[in-house]
Amino acid sequence: MPPPSTIRIIVPRRGRGRGDRVTRRTRIVIVTALAAFSPASRAGGQSSPAGASIVIVTGQQATIPIPTLMEGAAANVGNFDVADQLFLRLADLGPGLVTAGDNGFLPGLARSWTRRDSVTLAFELDPRARWHDGAPVTARDVVFTFSRAKDPDLAPRLATLLRYVASVSAETEHRVVFRFSQPYSEQLYDATFHVAPLPSHLLASLPPELVAHSDFVSKPVGSGPYRWVRSVPGQFVELTANPDFFLGKPKLDRVILRTAADAAARVNLLLGGQADAMDNIPPPQDNLRRVAAKPDLRLISVPSPTVGYLLFNQRDPRIRSRPHPILADVRVRRAITLGLDRRRIVQAVFGSHGAVPYGPVSQILWIRHRSPEPEQQDVTEARRLLAMAGWGDSDEDGTLDREGRPLALQLILPNTSAIRRQMALLVQEQLRQIGIRTEVHLLEVPVWLERRTAGDFDVDFGAVTQDPSPSGLSQSWTCTGGSNVAGYCNREVDSLMQRAVLAQGDPAEFWIAALRQMEADAPATFLYAPGYVYGVNRRFSNVAISPQSSWLLLRKWSVRTARTPQPGK
Amino acid sequence: MSGWLLRRAVQAAATFGIALTLLFVLMRAAPGDPLSRLGEDRPLSLREIEVLRARYGLDQPVVKQFGNFLEGLVRGDLGVSIEYGRPVTALLAERLPATVLLGGTVLLLNFGVGLWLGVRQAVRRGATEDRWLTALSLTGYAMPSFWLGLVLAWLVGVELRLLPAAGMQDPLLSSDAGALTRAGDVLRHLVLPAFTLSIVSIAATMRYQRTAMLEVLRLPYIVTARAKGLADREVIWRHAWRNALFPIITLFALWLPILVSGSVFVEAVFAWPGLGSLAAGAVGSRDYPLLMGASLLVAALVVVSGFLADIAYALLDPRVRLA
User: Fold this and answer.
1) In this predicted structure, what is the pLDDT of residue B251?
2) Which of A76, A79, A157, A304 should be substituted to probe chain B, the one whose Cβ sees the most B Cβ atoms within 10 Å?
3) Of B287, B269, B268, whose CA–CA distance to B277 is shortest?
4) Which residue of A146, A397, A427, B49 has the fewest CB atoms within a 10 Å radius of its CB?
């Protein structure tokens, strides 16, 4: 509803005397206040963005949007979103997000690349590329950046991700050569995706440990489509279009990334016209309905990197050397998976914007497109498997038991996840119907993580955010994987994953074979792979959102109708 | 008086020291590792954990960590936030103005409007106005502020679009906008959160003030004042109100810490960039340095407000000093 242009105040007539004096005074106060807050005198808050500006509301504010410094807690969406606007990568993933092989990538700072042998890639930098201060982007910048990124004391996260990059050297001013420690299919991905080059002419003279506290962090100089303007802590970050961007000046002049940690506040900012776009409108479905009901807004569903699952502990939580008394049996794990109507659960929480995954595969992993369909609910088979495992309802209390022990499981999850809270109740009810009693334990995040890491749980309702590469799967699902907290171990899966990671050709068949084996082993019930739903004002055209990173393609957006600036702007 | 003041000051300092030690110990005793949260979405490798633990001094024994904290405190250095990777003092300084603005407005409304209405009610005891104000204040007192905030943000900010639904300033405001325009912009953003928080606090103050005034108005010296022919205004504000202020001083001392503690729910609902939401986030992530910094600030103000209340009592009533 558009704001009224005039406000009429009707004050009933009262008798004379003291009361009348108060009424007059009150009337003056009301009129003054309303005049001050009326739309005509507003400075902008209610008004929508003027001209070719966009206000995006997000949950986290960028604090250190600098490649190589986004480590630990700084490795968050808020920083990545801004870094994507400020710093251009050598190349970007294509629309299919295929991370294997050398094809399908889109040129960025590098206009081309050639493979010299199975362990060597040479990149030709675009000579038109410039830093925001006008200096040219050179091979020295790439070498400098990777020397910082590969230092485990400075950037432990990146150093792990870049472990197969043996060396990076500058052959000429604009040619940089990457050598890898072994042949594998994701060399180009590793060289381009994880870190964007930094300006060595500004940073090389600074001791590495001081960069995080330098002026560069408060006013970064990048090579991307947008330049840094300012950050107002706790409120927003402002960027402006880089007029000299060598791939074409962005059509939106100004980008504001506004912060509101609370999801309800973000939705209100979008609905109230104080923001033009919002990423990941969260369930409940009512939020989506409210946005959809606004004629000036539209919803856009984008594949997300999140996947959620019920992880079964295969070790006894009390004595880790022993197998879990219930869940070590694959028949019980399979029965739980088959006993759940996962489609219904996903539909109830995400509507049409979610899917049941095949294996621990989010919607952004390219192998998803080659995966089989996940199994449907089969309660009869679930009951049969439980009976085969010796579970029956001897005391007819509705809960299965074996040798006097009920089939009861503790399900732990973090209390901050509304999605998982809602799903846990649905899971609890559906499992009750096949005779499994589930106690849902909502835990504070640090406590949940501590118990999870220590293996102190029966079933953990986890969710992870994945990079576009499937190679990250080996961290959680191989026998020696650093994040394998549930004791799942199948040497065949390990072998398949290793062959997939090191394959020189198309690794898809190995990945799919590994997923098939995992589905059969049921180390977890893979429950949901949601899409993120974005709300975007209809005045923007050429709206493109990359699943890889929310606002990566913002430079291609344009505005159909500029809004009239409000007085005071 | 100076001896009494010194004793009270020493007591306040000791209370602050004990609070500080307890906060430090309890924080570490609570379950949950500050680094575990970093691996919530993307599991960390052992190497990453080692590097981060050393970076934040978490690999040291607790006693050594406390020593380091005290040493830093003396220098005005509260350490580096684990979540934000920035000095805690800088983070607190950035968020403090927003909290003080919101808390100060709430205090002003609370003790301005609340006291005035409470006195009005007491003077008009049993009248229609008193009955209405009683009903309204009880309704306000019973209303959860987070719920009221959600309703107001939706109704006023989204449906009517009369005021901003969230935030503290319009990010599109031109950089050359004048100070008055900027102040007006902040004021518009302030209305809803301040109103939400004030409703509950005003109601409480009204009730306290009404009761205190009623007790005083019954006393013989008030009858004497009236018998002397003093004007109503003088009897109420000069003779009665001063003696009815004691419970209000206590109430004020209890409310004063809101100046720096903020309100977690209301700040969240209105995306108000204050200390409340910062501290709440620090609790959830076990960000020890930030949590200690925020707690320190609140503890200091609690102690200071108690100290100030003692002084106010002593100034208003010499019997307190003598006791």
Assistant:
1) 87
2) A157
3) B268
4) A397
Cβ-nearest to A238 among B171, B181, B184 = B171
What are A156-211's pLDDT values in tens digits? 889 989 999 999 999 999 999 999 999 999 999 999 999 999 999 999 999 988 88
Top pLDDT among A15 and A498 is at A498
Which position has the higher pLDDT, A25 or A526? A526
Tell me if B165 and A258 make a contact (CB, 8 A cut-off). no
The neighbour count for residue A302, using CB atoms within 10 Å, is 19
Tell me whether residues B278 and A234 touch, CB distance under 8 A: yes
Q: Is the pLDDT of residue B180 over 80?
A: yes
What gap in Å lies between CA B8 and CA B256, rounded to an integer? 19
HSE-CB at A489 with a 13 A cutoff on CA atoms is: 9
**Within 13 Å of residue B167, how many CA atoms lie on the same side as its CB?**
33
What are residue B206's phi and psi, to 5 degrees? -55, -45
Please judge whether A73 and B270 are an interchain contact, meaning their C-beta atoms are less than 8 angstroms apart. no
Confidence (pLDDT) at B321: 62
In chain A, residues with a C-beta closer than 8 Å to the C-beta of B95 are: 233-234
CB pairs under 8 A between A and B: 216
Are B128 and B175 a contacting pair, CB within 8 Å? no
Q: Cβ–Cβ of B38/A72 closer than 8 Å?
A: yes
Question: What is the C-alpha to C-alpha distance for residues A514 and A518, in angstroms, rounded to an integer?
Answer: 6
Residue A154 identity? L
The pLDDT of residue B69 is above 70: yes
Contact flag B159-A262 (C-beta cutoff 8 Å): no
User: What is the model's pLDDT at position B204?
Assistant: 87
pLDDT digit string, tens, across residues B270-311: 999 999 888 888 888 888 999 999 999 989 999 999 888 888
Query: Which chain B residue lies closest to A290 (C-alpha atoms)?
Result: B158
Name every residue whose Cβ is closer than 8 Å to that of residue A450 and which is 6 or more positions away in sequence.
B31, B32, B33, B36
Residue tagged 């302030």 (tokens): B190
The chain-wide mean pLDDT, for chain A, equals: 89
Rg (C-alpha) for chain A, rounded Å, is: 28
To the nearest whole Å, the CA of B106 is away from the closest chain A CA by: 18
Complex-level ipTM: 0.86
**Strand bridging mode A53-58 / A254-259:** parallel
What pLDDT sits at residue B2?
Answer: 77
Beta-strand relationship, A540-541 and A558-559: antiparallel
- Which of A38, A46, A412 would you mutate first to test chain B, the one with the most B CBs within 10 A? A46
The dihedral through the CA atoms of B44, B48, B54, B59 has a sign that is positive
* Burial label, A273 (beta-carbon count in 10 A; 0-12, 13-18, 19+): buried
Tokens of B233: 């205004």
Q: Is the model's pLDDT at B109 over the cut of 60? A: yes
Task: State how far residue B119 is from chain A, nearest Cα, in angstroms.
Answer: 17
CA distance A46 to A292: 20
Contact B36 A453 (CB under 8 A): yes
CB contact under 8 A, B42 and A232: no
Residue A63, min C-alpha distance to chain B (Å): 7
- The pLDDT of residue A328 is above 90: yes
Q: What percent of chain A has pLDDT over 70?
A: 90
**Average confidence (pLDDT) over A436-448:** 93
Which phi and psi (to 5°) does residue B45 adopt?
Answer: -80, 165
Prediction pTM value: 0.86
Q: Do B285 and A157 touch (CB under 8 A)?
A: no
The secondary structure of chain A in percent helix, strand, coil, rounded to multiples of 5, reads 35, 20, 45
The token pair at A454 is 């220590």
Binned at pLDDT 50, 70 and 90, residue A15 comes out as very low
- Taking the CA of residue A150 as centre, how many other CA atoms within 13 Å lie in the half-sphere pointing to its CB? 17
